[in-house]
Design a protein that fits this description.
Helix content is about 40%, strand content about 15%. By secondary structure, the protein is of the alpha/beta class. The longest helix is centred in the N-terminal third of the chain and has 21 residues. It binds ligand NPW, adenosine-5'-diphosphate (ADP) and potassium ion. One of its GO terms (molecular function) is ATP binding. Homotetramer.
Protein backbone atom coordinates (compact mmCIF):
# COMPACT_ATOMS: atom_id res chain seq x y z
CA UNK A 1 0.00 0.00 0.00
CA UNK A 2 1.27 3.43 -0.91
CA UNK A 3 0.64 5.93 1.89
CA UNK A 4 0.80 9.71 1.89
CA UNK A 5 1.00 12.20 4.74
CA UNK A 6 0.14 15.92 4.61
CA UNK A 7 2.97 18.46 4.13
CA UNK A 8 2.38 19.70 7.67
CA UNK A 9 2.88 16.24 9.17
CA UNK A 10 5.91 15.59 6.97
CA UNK A 11 7.48 18.85 8.17
CA UNK A 12 6.96 17.87 11.81
CA UNK A 13 8.62 14.48 11.19
CA UNK A 14 11.40 16.16 9.22
CA UNK A 15 12.12 18.56 12.08
CA UNK A 16 12.29 15.71 14.58
CA UNK A 17 14.71 13.80 12.35
CA UNK A 18 16.86 16.86 11.65
CA UNK A 19 17.33 17.24 15.41
CA UNK A 20 19.10 13.86 15.40
CA UNK A 21 21.25 14.41 12.31
CA UNK A 22 24.19 16.64 11.40
CA UNK A 23 23.34 19.99 9.78
CA UNK A 24 22.44 19.59 6.11
CA UNK A 25 22.45 15.78 6.28
CA UNK A 26 18.78 15.39 5.31
CA UNK A 27 19.09 17.66 2.31
CA UNK A 28 22.29 15.86 1.31
CA UNK A 29 20.43 12.53 1.32
CA UNK A 30 17.59 14.02 -0.71
CA UNK A 31 19.98 15.53 -3.27
CA UNK A 32 21.97 12.30 -3.64
CA UNK A 33 18.81 10.29 -4.25
CA UNK A 34 17.53 12.88 -6.71
CA UNK A 35 20.86 12.93 -8.58
CA UNK A 36 20.85 9.14 -8.81
CA UNK A 37 17.42 9.15 -10.49
CA UNK A 38 18.45 11.95 -12.89
CA UNK A 39 21.68 10.12 -13.76
CA UNK A 40 19.73 6.95 -14.59
CA UNK A 41 17.31 8.87 -16.84
CA UNK A 42 20.18 10.63 -18.64
CA UNK A 43 21.95 7.32 -19.18
CA UNK A 44 18.77 5.80 -20.57
CA UNK A 45 18.19 8.68 -23.00
CA UNK A 46 21.83 9.32 -23.88
CA UNK A 47 21.46 12.99 -22.86
CA UNK A 48 23.86 15.13 -20.84
CA UNK A 49 22.49 18.68 -20.73
CA UNK A 50 20.70 19.49 -17.49
CA UNK A 51 18.81 22.68 -16.64
CA UNK A 52 17.75 23.40 -13.06
CA UNK A 53 14.77 25.66 -12.39
CA UNK A 54 16.02 26.97 -9.05
CA UNK A 55 13.41 28.39 -6.69
CA UNK A 56 13.93 30.47 -3.55
CA UNK A 57 13.52 27.74 -0.92
CA UNK A 58 14.87 24.34 0.10
CA UNK A 59 13.30 22.79 -2.98
CA UNK A 60 15.65 24.86 -5.13
CA UNK A 61 18.59 23.92 -2.92
CA UNK A 62 17.80 20.19 -3.32
CA UNK A 63 17.85 20.65 -7.09
CA UNK A 64 21.13 22.61 -7.02
CA UNK A 65 22.93 20.05 -4.85
CA UNK A 66 21.71 17.29 -7.17
CA UNK A 67 23.01 19.29 -10.15
CA UNK A 68 26.39 19.57 -8.42
CA UNK A 69 26.55 15.74 -8.23
CA UNK A 70 25.60 15.49 -11.92
CA UNK A 71 28.16 18.14 -12.90
CA UNK A 72 30.78 16.20 -10.92
CA UNK A 73 29.90 13.21 -13.04
CA UNK A 74 30.43 15.12 -16.29
CA UNK A 75 26.96 16.44 -17.13
CA UNK A 76 26.60 19.96 -18.47
CA UNK A 77 24.53 21.70 -15.76
CA UNK A 78 22.93 25.14 -15.91
CA UNK A 79 20.81 26.68 -13.14
CA UNK A 80 18.23 29.36 -13.92
CA UNK A 81 17.91 31.98 -11.20
CA UNK A 82 14.81 34.15 -10.69
CA UNK A 83 14.65 37.47 -8.88
CA UNK A 84 15.72 35.93 -5.57
CA UNK A 85 19.07 35.06 -4.02
CA UNK A 86 20.23 31.42 -4.21
CA UNK A 87 21.28 31.64 -0.60
CA UNK A 88 20.17 28.34 0.96
CA UNK A 89 22.94 25.78 1.43
CA UNK A 90 26.41 26.40 0.04
CA UNK A 91 26.34 28.11 -3.38
CA UNK A 92 30.13 27.89 -3.63
CA UNK A 93 29.91 24.11 -3.72
CA UNK A 94 27.56 24.12 -6.75
CA UNK A 95 29.74 26.60 -8.58
CA UNK A 96 32.91 24.65 -7.74
CA UNK A 97 31.31 21.48 -9.16
CA UNK A 98 30.73 23.34 -12.42
CA UNK A 99 27.05 24.34 -12.24
CA UNK A 100 26.69 27.56 -14.27
CA UNK A 101 24.10 30.05 -13.00
CA UNK A 102 22.11 32.06 -15.56
CA UNK A 103 20.78 35.32 -14.08
CA UNK A 104 17.21 36.49 -14.84
CA UNK A 105 18.49 38.80 -17.61
CA UNK A 106 20.80 36.09 -19.09
CA UNK A 107 20.09 33.79 -22.03
CA UNK A 108 17.99 31.24 -20.20
CA UNK A 109 15.86 30.70 -23.32
CA UNK A 110 18.75 29.05 -25.22
CA UNK A 111 19.77 27.04 -22.17
CA UNK A 112 16.27 25.59 -21.84
CA UNK A 113 15.88 24.95 -25.57
CA UNK A 114 18.98 22.70 -25.42
CA UNK A 115 17.99 20.79 -22.27
CA UNK A 116 17.83 16.99 -22.25
CA UNK A 117 16.65 16.93 -18.64
CA UNK A 118 14.98 19.69 -16.63
CA UNK A 119 15.05 19.55 -12.82
CA UNK A 120 12.06 21.47 -11.50
CA UNK A 121 13.11 22.85 -8.11
CA UNK A 122 10.94 25.98 -8.13
CA UNK A 123 8.63 25.16 -5.21
CA UNK A 124 8.06 22.19 -2.94
CA UNK A 125 5.85 21.69 0.08
CA UNK A 126 6.41 25.35 1.07
CA UNK A 127 4.75 26.54 -2.12
CA UNK A 128 1.67 28.74 -2.11
CA UNK A 129 -0.74 28.41 -5.07
CA UNK A 130 0.71 29.83 -8.29
CA UNK A 131 4.26 30.19 -9.62
CA UNK A 132 6.62 33.20 -9.49
CA UNK A 133 6.46 35.12 -12.83
CA UNK A 134 9.96 34.04 -13.90
CA UNK A 135 9.00 30.42 -13.38
CA UNK A 136 5.83 30.78 -15.48
CA UNK A 137 8.04 31.85 -18.40
CA UNK A 138 10.53 29.01 -17.74
CA UNK A 139 7.81 26.38 -17.65
CA UNK A 140 6.30 27.70 -20.90
CA UNK A 141 9.73 27.43 -22.57
CA UNK A 142 10.51 23.80 -21.59
CA UNK A 143 10.87 21.90 -24.87
CA UNK A 144 8.66 18.83 -25.35
CA UNK A 145 11.79 16.75 -25.94
CA UNK A 146 13.19 17.40 -22.43
CA UNK A 147 12.49 14.91 -19.62
CA UNK A 148 11.09 16.89 -16.68
CA UNK A 149 11.91 15.68 -13.16
CA UNK A 150 10.08 17.58 -10.44
CA UNK A 151 11.68 17.77 -7.03
CA UNK A 152 9.27 16.64 -4.31
CA UNK A 153 6.23 17.84 -6.28
CA UNK A 154 5.43 19.53 -9.58
CA UNK A 155 5.92 23.23 -8.79
CA UNK A 156 2.79 25.32 -8.79
CA UNK A 157 0.56 22.36 -7.93
CA UNK A 158 -1.34 22.35 -4.65
CA UNK A 159 0.78 20.38 -2.09
CA UNK A 160 -2.49 19.26 -0.43
CA UNK A 161 -3.71 17.86 -3.76
CA UNK A 162 -7.11 19.51 -3.42
CA UNK A 163 -7.26 22.01 -6.30
CA UNK A 164 -6.00 21.59 -9.87
CA UNK A 165 -3.84 24.19 -11.63
CA UNK A 166 -3.24 24.61 -15.36
CA UNK A 167 -0.19 26.84 -14.92
CA UNK A 168 1.93 24.58 -12.72
CA UNK A 169 4.57 22.15 -13.94
CA UNK A 170 3.43 18.87 -15.54
CA UNK A 171 6.31 16.48 -14.89
CA UNK A 172 7.41 13.26 -16.53
CA UNK A 173 8.60 12.08 -13.13
CA UNK A 174 8.39 13.36 -9.57
CA UNK A 175 11.07 12.41 -7.07
CA UNK A 176 9.84 12.82 -3.52
CA UNK A 177 11.58 12.29 -0.20
CA UNK A 178 10.76 9.94 2.67
CA UNK A 179 7.06 9.43 2.00
CA UNK A 180 4.48 10.41 -0.62
CA UNK A 181 2.28 13.46 -0.03
CA UNK A 182 -1.41 13.96 -0.96
CA UNK A 183 -0.42 15.94 -4.11
CA UNK A 184 0.98 12.71 -5.56
CA UNK A 185 -2.16 10.60 -5.16
CA UNK A 186 -5.22 12.86 -5.32
CA UNK A 187 -7.16 13.40 -8.57
CA UNK A 188 -6.82 17.21 -8.75
CA UNK A 189 -3.02 17.09 -8.95
CA UNK A 190 -1.99 13.53 -9.82
CA UNK A 191 -2.07 14.17 -13.61
CA UNK A 192 0.85 16.62 -13.11
CA UNK A 193 3.03 14.15 -11.17
CA UNK A 194 4.01 11.63 -13.87
CA UNK A 195 5.96 8.61 -12.64
CA UNK A 196 6.35 8.76 -8.84
CA UNK A 197 9.66 7.80 -7.23
CA UNK A 198 9.98 7.88 -3.44
CA UNK A 199 13.55 8.22 -2.12
CA UNK A 200 14.37 6.76 1.29
CA UNK A 201 16.00 9.46 3.44
CA UNK A 202 15.35 7.70 6.76
CA UNK A 203 12.15 9.66 7.41
CA UNK A 204 9.09 8.04 8.93
CA UNK A 205 5.84 9.76 9.86
CA UNK A 206 3.91 8.60 12.92
CA UNK A 207 0.18 7.92 12.91
CA UNK A 208 -2.38 7.07 10.26
CA UNK A 209 -1.71 8.45 6.79
CA UNK A 210 -3.97 11.04 5.15
CA UNK A 211 -4.24 9.22 1.81
CA UNK A 212 -3.69 5.58 0.86
CA UNK A 213 -3.50 3.67 -2.42
CA UNK A 214 -3.99 -0.10 -2.51
CA UNK A 215 -1.52 -2.05 -4.62
CA UNK A 216 -1.57 -5.60 -5.97
CA UNK A 217 -0.27 -7.08 -2.71
CA UNK A 218 -3.33 -5.66 -0.95
CA UNK A 219 -5.61 -7.69 -3.21
CA UNK A 220 -4.14 -10.90 -1.82
CA UNK A 221 -4.45 -9.50 1.71
CA UNK A 222 -8.04 -8.28 1.45
CA UNK A 223 -9.82 -10.39 -1.21
CA UNK A 224 -12.41 -12.79 0.29
CA UNK A 225 -11.04 -16.21 -0.67
CA UNK A 226 -13.38 -19.11 0.25
CA UNK A 227 -12.17 -22.05 2.35
CA UNK A 228 -13.24 -25.70 2.70
CA UNK A 229 -15.74 -24.81 5.39
CA UNK A 230 -17.59 -22.25 3.28
CA UNK A 231 -20.94 -22.72 1.58
CA UNK A 232 -22.78 -20.37 -0.74
CA UNK A 233 -24.55 -18.58 2.12
CA UNK A 234 -21.44 -18.10 4.24
CA UNK A 235 -19.65 -16.60 1.23
CA UNK A 236 -22.36 -13.96 0.92
CA UNK A 237 -25.52 -13.38 -1.05
CA UNK A 238 -25.84 -10.11 -2.95
CA UNK A 239 -29.17 -8.60 -3.93
CA UNK A 240 -29.11 -6.38 -7.01
CA UNK A 241 -31.91 -3.90 -7.71
CA UNK A 242 -30.93 -2.59 -11.12
CA UNK A 243 -32.11 -1.99 -14.66
CA UNK A 244 -35.47 -0.85 -15.88
CA UNK A 245 -37.35 -0.78 -19.14
CA UNK A 246 -35.00 1.98 -20.43
CA UNK A 247 -31.58 0.89 -19.18
CA UNK A 248 -32.04 -2.87 -19.19
CA UNK A 249 -28.41 -3.69 -20.00
CA UNK A 250 -27.14 -2.13 -16.76
CA UNK A 251 -28.61 -5.11 -14.90
CA UNK A 252 -26.67 -7.60 -17.04
CA UNK A 253 -23.40 -5.69 -16.65
CA UNK A 254 -23.75 -5.30 -12.89
CA UNK A 255 -24.85 -8.90 -12.28
CA UNK A 256 -22.20 -10.40 -14.60
CA UNK A 257 -19.49 -8.52 -12.73
CA UNK A 258 -20.93 -9.44 -9.33
CA UNK A 259 -21.03 -13.20 -9.97
CA UNK A 260 -17.63 -12.95 -11.66
CA UNK A 261 -16.14 -11.41 -8.52
CA UNK A 262 -16.98 -14.62 -6.64
CA UNK A 263 -20.35 -14.41 -4.92
CA UNK A 264 -22.01 -17.17 -2.94
CA UNK A 265 -25.28 -16.29 -4.66
CA UNK A 266 -26.92 -13.46 -6.58
CA UNK A 267 -30.52 -12.31 -6.18
CA UNK A 268 -31.89 -10.03 -8.84
CA UNK A 269 -34.89 -7.70 -8.62
CA UNK A 270 -35.98 -5.99 -11.82
CA UNK A 271 -38.74 -5.13 -14.26
CA UNK A 272 -39.72 -7.62 -17.02
CA UNK A 273 -37.22 -6.70 -19.78
CA UNK A 274 -34.01 -6.74 -17.71
CA UNK A 275 -35.28 -9.77 -15.82
CA UNK A 276 -35.45 -11.65 -19.13
CA UNK A 277 -31.95 -10.52 -20.05
CA UNK A 278 -30.53 -11.52 -16.68
CA UNK A 279 -32.24 -14.93 -16.91
CA UNK A 280 -30.48 -15.70 -20.18
CA UNK A 281 -27.09 -14.08 -19.46
CA UNK A 282 -26.73 -15.24 -15.85
CA UNK A 283 -28.60 -18.52 -15.37
CA UNK A 284 -27.21 -18.86 -11.83
CA UNK A 285 -29.10 -15.73 -10.64
CA UNK A 286 -32.08 -16.21 -8.33
CA UNK A 287 -34.97 -13.82 -8.94
CA UNK A 288 -37.01 -11.73 -6.54
CA UNK A 289 -36.65 -10.27 -3.06
CA UNK A 290 -35.19 -12.45 -0.30
CA UNK A 291 -32.50 -12.80 2.32
CA UNK A 292 -29.15 -11.24 1.38
CA UNK A 293 -25.97 -10.02 3.07
CA UNK A 294 -25.77 -6.79 1.03
CA UNK A 295 -27.61 -4.86 -1.68
CA UNK A 296 -26.65 -2.95 -4.80
CA UNK A 297 -29.33 -0.38 -5.57
CA UNK A 298 -29.42 1.76 -8.65
CA UNK A 299 -27.50 0.87 -11.85
CA UNK A 300 -29.94 1.66 -14.69
CA UNK A 301 -32.75 2.22 -12.18
CA UNK A 302 -35.36 4.77 -13.25
CA UNK A 303 -37.03 5.99 -10.06
CA UNK A 304 -39.64 7.97 -12.04
CA UNK A 305 -40.78 5.07 -14.24
CA UNK A 306 -44.43 3.97 -14.39
CA UNK A 307 -43.63 0.88 -16.45
CA UNK A 308 -44.92 -2.53 -15.37
CA UNK A 309 -42.96 -3.90 -12.43
CA UNK A 310 -41.33 -0.56 -11.60
CA UNK A 311 -43.26 0.07 -8.41
CA UNK A 312 -42.50 -3.35 -6.97
CA UNK A 313 -38.83 -2.92 -7.87
CA UNK A 314 -38.75 0.51 -6.24
CA UNK A 315 -40.36 -0.88 -3.08
CA UNK A 316 -37.49 -3.38 -2.76
CA UNK A 317 -34.96 -0.59 -3.36
CA UNK A 318 -36.50 1.53 -0.61
CA UNK A 319 -36.71 -1.41 1.79
CA UNK A 320 -33.02 -2.13 1.17
CA UNK A 321 -32.15 1.47 2.00
CA UNK A 322 -34.32 1.33 5.14
CA UNK A 323 -32.64 -1.88 6.32
CA UNK A 324 -29.49 -2.16 8.42
CA UNK A 325 -27.71 -4.22 5.73
CA UNK A 326 -24.71 -2.93 3.77
CA UNK A 327 -25.92 -1.13 0.64
CA UNK A 328 -24.08 0.21 -2.41
CA UNK A 329 -26.07 2.99 -4.06
CA UNK A 330 -25.26 3.94 -7.65
CA UNK A 331 -26.72 5.98 -10.52
CA UNK A 332 -30.55 6.21 -10.33
CA UNK A 333 -30.50 4.86 -6.78
CA UNK A 334 -28.73 8.02 -5.61
CA UNK A 335 -32.03 9.88 -6.05
CA UNK A 336 -33.43 7.74 -3.20
CA UNK A 337 -30.73 8.73 -0.69
CA UNK A 338 -32.40 10.91 1.90
CA UNK A 339 -29.71 11.25 4.53
CA UNK A 340 -28.15 8.89 7.03
CA UNK A 341 -29.09 5.22 7.04
CA UNK A 342 -28.40 2.64 9.71
CA UNK A 343 -26.17 0.17 7.83
CA UNK A 344 -22.78 0.45 6.13
CA UNK A 345 -23.26 2.48 2.95
CA UNK A 346 -21.18 3.05 -0.17
CA UNK A 347 -22.37 5.70 -2.64
CA UNK A 348 -20.72 5.51 -6.08
CA UNK A 349 -21.44 8.72 -8.02
CA UNK A 350 -19.46 10.22 -10.90
CA UNK A 351 -18.83 14.00 -10.69
CA UNK A 352 -22.20 14.94 -12.25
CA UNK A 353 -24.13 12.62 -9.93
CA UNK A 354 -22.27 13.95 -6.90
CA UNK A 355 -23.17 17.52 -7.90
CA UNK A 356 -26.83 16.50 -8.24
CA UNK A 357 -26.82 14.68 -4.89
CA UNK A 358 -25.28 17.63 -3.04
CA UNK A 359 -27.68 20.07 -4.73
CA UNK A 360 -30.65 18.03 -3.53
CA UNK A 361 -29.38 17.32 0.00
CA UNK A 362 -28.15 20.86 0.67
CA UNK A 363 -30.94 22.61 -1.27
CA UNK A 364 -28.28 24.82 -2.88
CA UNK A 365 -26.80 24.34 -6.33
CA UNK A 366 -23.48 22.55 -6.77
CA UNK A 367 -22.28 22.17 -10.35
CA UNK A 368 -20.19 19.47 -12.01
CA UNK A 369 -17.30 21.94 -12.71
CA UNK A 370 -17.28 22.83 -9.00
CA UNK A 371 -16.89 19.14 -8.14
CA UNK A 372 -14.09 18.82 -10.73
CA UNK A 373 -12.30 21.84 -9.18
CA UNK A 374 -12.30 20.23 -5.71
CA UNK A 375 -13.17 16.53 -5.93
CA UNK A 376 -11.98 15.61 -2.44
CA UNK A 377 -13.75 18.55 -0.76
CA UNK A 378 -17.08 17.71 -2.38
CA UNK A 379 -16.79 13.96 -1.75
CA UNK A 380 -16.01 14.69 1.88
CA UNK A 381 -19.00 17.02 2.16
CA UNK A 382 -21.30 14.30 0.82
CA UNK A 383 -19.74 11.74 3.17
CA UNK A 384 -20.29 13.99 6.18
CA UNK A 385 -23.87 14.79 5.14
CA UNK A 386 -24.89 11.17 4.62
CA UNK A 387 -22.56 9.26 6.95
CA UNK A 388 -21.79 7.09 3.91
CA UNK A 389 -18.47 6.35 2.23
CA UNK A 390 -18.34 8.16 -1.12
CA UNK A 391 -16.66 6.53 -4.10
CA UNK A 392 -16.19 9.35 -6.62
CA UNK A 393 -15.48 7.83 -10.05
CA UNK A 394 -12.98 9.27 -12.48
CA UNK A 395 -9.54 8.69 -13.99
CA UNK A 396 -8.40 8.65 -10.37
CA UNK A 397 -11.18 7.23 -8.21
CA UNK A 398 -11.53 8.54 -4.66
CA UNK A 399 -13.04 6.55 -1.80
CA UNK A 400 -13.84 8.94 1.02
CA UNK A 401 -15.19 7.87 4.43
CA UNK A 402 -16.98 10.40 6.66
CA UNK A 403 -14.56 12.59 8.63
CA UNK A 404 -15.85 11.17 11.92
CA UNK A 405 -14.50 7.72 10.98
CA UNK A 406 -10.94 9.06 11.23
CA UNK A 407 -9.79 6.90 8.32
CA UNK A 408 -7.48 7.74 5.44
CA UNK A 409 -8.97 8.58 2.07
CA UNK A 410 -8.23 5.94 -0.60
CA UNK A 411 -7.29 7.00 -4.09
CA UNK A 412 -6.98 4.44 -6.90
CA UNK A 413 -5.54 5.02 -10.34
CA UNK A 414 -5.49 1.60 -11.99
CA UNK A 415 -7.64 2.06 -15.10
CA UNK A 416 -6.72 3.04 -18.65
CA UNK A 417 -8.66 6.01 -20.07
CA UNK A 418 -10.36 3.46 -22.39
CA UNK A 419 -12.53 2.62 -19.38
CA UNK A 420 -14.39 5.92 -19.82
CA UNK A 421 -17.21 4.10 -21.59
CA UNK A 422 -20.93 3.62 -20.95
CA UNK A 423 -21.73 0.79 -18.57
CA UNK A 424 -18.32 0.71 -16.90
CA UNK A 425 -19.88 2.12 -13.73
CA UNK A 426 -22.47 -0.68 -13.66
CA UNK A 427 -19.61 -3.20 -13.72
CA UNK A 428 -17.86 -1.42 -10.85
CA UNK A 429 -21.06 -1.51 -8.79
CA UNK A 430 -21.27 -5.28 -9.26
CA UNK A 431 -17.68 -5.89 -8.15
CA UNK A 432 -17.91 -3.62 -5.11
CA UNK A 433 -21.33 -5.06 -4.21
CA UNK A 434 -19.91 -8.60 -4.19
CA UNK A 435 -17.20 -7.44 -1.78
CA UNK A 436 -19.77 -5.81 0.53
CA UNK A 437 -21.73 -9.08 0.54
CA UNK A 438 -18.56 -10.92 1.58
CA UNK A 439 -18.32 -8.65 4.61
CA UNK A 440 -15.78 -6.02 3.58
CA UNK A 441 -16.24 -2.45 4.79
CA UNK A 442 -17.41 0.19 2.30
CA UNK A 443 -13.87 1.64 2.28
CA UNK A 444 -12.19 -1.69 1.47
CA UNK A 445 -14.94 -2.83 -0.91
CA UNK A 446 -14.83 0.47 -2.83
CA UNK A 447 -11.06 0.76 -3.15
CA UNK A 448 -10.41 -2.93 -3.81
CA UNK A 449 -13.28 -3.00 -6.33
CA UNK A 450 -11.91 0.08 -8.12
CA UNK A 451 -8.45 -1.52 -8.32
CA UNK A 452 -9.70 -4.83 -9.76
CA UNK A 453 -12.10 -3.02 -12.14
CA UNK A 454 -9.24 -0.86 -13.47
CA UNK A 455 -6.84 -3.78 -13.89
CA UNK A 456 -9.57 -5.85 -15.57
CA UNK A 457 -10.12 -3.02 -18.07
CA UNK A 458 -6.43 -3.05 -18.92
CA UNK A 459 -6.19 -6.82 -19.18
CA UNK A 460 -9.33 -7.07 -21.34
CA UNK A 461 -7.39 -5.49 -24.22
CA UNK A 462 -4.00 -4.04 -23.21
CA UNK A 463 -3.37 -0.72 -24.93
CA UNK A 464 -6.66 -0.69 -26.85
CA UNK A 465 -10.39 -0.04 -26.54
CA UNK A 466 -12.54 -1.95 -24.09
CA UNK A 467 -16.28 -2.28 -23.73
CA UNK A 468 -17.98 -2.60 -20.37
CA UNK A 469 -19.15 -6.19 -21.00
CA UNK A 470 -15.56 -7.28 -21.72
CA UNK A 471 -14.48 -5.78 -18.40
CA UNK A 472 -17.27 -7.65 -16.61
CA UNK A 473 -16.27 -10.93 -18.28
CA UNK A 474 -12.63 -10.31 -17.37
CA UNK A 475 -13.19 -9.96 -13.61
CA UNK A 476 -12.69 -13.69 -12.66
CA UNK A 477 -9.41 -14.00 -14.58
CA UNK A 478 -8.16 -10.66 -13.20
CA UNK A 479 -8.88 -11.72 -9.62
CA UNK A 480 -7.05 -15.02 -10.18
CA UNK A 481 -4.11 -13.18 -11.74
CA UNK A 482 -3.86 -10.78 -8.80
CA UNK A 483 -4.22 -13.56 -6.20
CA UNK A 484 -1.40 -15.75 -7.57
CA UNK A 485 1.12 -12.95 -8.06
N1 LIG B 1 10.26 17.41 4.11
C1 LIG B 1 11.38 16.72 3.99
O1 LIG B 1 11.51 15.66 4.55
C2 LIG B 1 12.49 17.25 3.21
C3 LIG B 1 12.31 18.44 2.48
N2 LIG B 1 13.24 18.87 1.66
C4 LIG B 1 12.92 19.90 0.68
O2 LIG B 1 12.42 21.07 1.25
C5 LIG B 1 11.31 21.53 0.49
C6 LIG B 1 10.50 22.51 1.25
O3 LIG B 1 11.32 23.65 1.39
P1 LIG B 1 10.78 25.07 1.83
O4 LIG B 1 10.06 24.94 3.09
O5 LIG B 1 11.94 25.97 1.80
O6 LIG B 1 9.72 25.41 0.74
P2 LIG B 1 9.83 25.60 -0.86
O7 LIG B 1 8.68 24.90 -1.41
O8 LIG B 1 11.16 25.31 -1.39
O9 LIG B 1 9.55 27.16 -1.12
C7 LIG B 1 9.46 28.12 -0.12
C8 LIG B 1 9.96 29.43 -0.68
O10 LIG B 1 9.22 29.78 -1.84
C9 LIG B 1 8.52 31.01 -1.65
N3 LIG B 1 7.22 30.84 -2.26
C10 LIG B 1 6.27 29.96 -1.91
N4 LIG B 1 5.25 30.00 -2.78
C11 LIG B 1 5.56 30.94 -3.70
C12 LIG B 1 4.88 31.43 -4.84
N5 LIG B 1 3.71 30.96 -5.23
N6 LIG B 1 5.48 32.40 -5.55
C13 LIG B 1 6.68 32.88 -5.18
N7 LIG B 1 7.37 32.42 -4.11
C14 LIG B 1 6.82 31.48 -3.38
C15 LIG B 1 8.49 31.21 -0.17
O11 LIG B 1 8.42 32.58 0.07
P3 LIG B 1 7.71 33.22 1.38
O12 LIG B 1 6.61 32.27 1.78
O13 LIG B 1 8.78 33.31 2.36
O14 LIG B 1 7.20 34.50 0.88
C16 LIG B 1 9.82 30.59 0.26
O15 LIG B 1 10.88 31.51 0.00
C17 LIG B 1 10.64 20.25 0.15
O16 LIG B 1 9.67 20.37 -0.86
C18 LIG B 1 11.84 19.41 -0.28
O17 LIG B 1 12.21 19.74 -1.62
C19 LIG B 1 14.54 18.15 1.54
O18 LIG B 1 15.57 19.07 1.37
C20 LIG B 1 14.88 17.33 2.75
C21 LIG B 1 13.77 16.50 3.18
N1 LIG C 1 -10.33 8.93 -17.96
C1 LIG C 1 -10.57 7.81 -17.28
N2 LIG C 1 -9.58 6.94 -17.03
C2 LIG C 1 -9.81 5.79 -16.38
N3 LIG C 1 -11.03 5.43 -15.91
C3 LIG C 1 -12.06 6.26 -16.10
C4 LIG C 1 -11.89 7.49 -16.78
N4 LIG C 1 -13.10 8.11 -16.83
C5 LIG C 1 -13.98 7.30 -16.20
N5 LIG C 1 -13.36 6.18 -15.76
C6 LIG C 1 -13.98 5.07 -15.03
O1 LIG C 1 -15.02 4.52 -15.83
C7 LIG C 1 -16.18 4.24 -15.05
C8 LIG C 1 -17.35 5.06 -15.58
O2 LIG C 1 -18.44 4.94 -14.75
P1 LIG C 1 -19.79 5.77 -14.97
O3 LIG C 1 -19.46 7.19 -15.25
O4 LIG C 1 -20.68 5.48 -13.83
O5 LIG C 1 -20.34 5.13 -16.30
P2 LIG C 1 -21.77 4.43 -16.57
O6 LIG C 1 -22.77 5.19 -15.75
O7 LIG C 1 -22.01 4.60 -18.03
O8 LIG C 1 -21.65 3.01 -16.18
C9 LIG C 1 -15.78 4.56 -13.61
O9 LIG C 1 -15.31 3.40 -12.96
C10 LIG C 1 -14.65 5.56 -13.77
O10 LIG C 1 -13.77 5.56 -12.67
K1 LIG D 1 9.34 21.18 -7.38
Amino acid sequence: MLQAWSAQRVRAAEEALMGELADGELMARAAEGLAEVCRARLTASGGSRVVVLAGPGNNGADALYAAAHLADGGSDCVALQGGWPLAIGDPESWLAAGVRVVAPDGDWVTALADADLVIDGVLGIGGRPGLPDEAVAWVDAIPDSAYVVSVDLPSGQDPAGETPSDTGVFADETVTFGVAKPVHLLPATEPAVGRLTVIDIGLTVQGAPDVERLDFADVARLWPVPTDTDDKYSRGVLGVVAGGEDYSGAAVLCCTAAVGAGLGMLRYVGTPTPTGLVRSAIPEAVHGDGRVQAWVVGPGLDTGSRARGSKAQLDVARAALDSELPVLVDAGGLDLVAGRRAGPTLLTPHAGELARLLTRLEDAETTRPEVAADPLGHARRAADLTGATILLKGATTLVVPPTSAGLAVRSQNDAPPWLATAGAGDVLAGVCGALLAAGLSPLDAGSLGALVHGVAADRANPGGPVRALAVAHGIPETVAHLLVR
